[in-house]
Amino acid sequence: MVYAQLENGRPGGLLVPKLRSSKKRLRQAQKAAVRNKPVRSRFRGILKQVRSAESKETADRMLTEANAIIDRTARKGVIHARSAARYKSRLAKHVAAMS
Length: 99
Hints:
Layout: E1 3-7, E2 10-17, H1 20-51, H2 56-75, H3 81-97
Antiparallel strand pairs: 1-2
Helix pairs in contact: 1-2, 2-3
């Protein structure tokens, strides 16, 4: 991508794409970031909730919900499918180790 450094119309600041395709790609990336933010936030939140659960029974119940959210996050393309499998595995291992 070809960028021009501009700050209030003058060189030296923010990187702004010059090419039309680069400008479009930037717009697409910004829209995707806005679209993915609540999905990623919910994903991170459920992970924290399961990890900080008080009892194993609570963690077990939350694990099924967490697995569904992790799968949904992967299906939407926010995280990779293998990454989702890794999260699910590690979370299940964490819950199993609880006493």
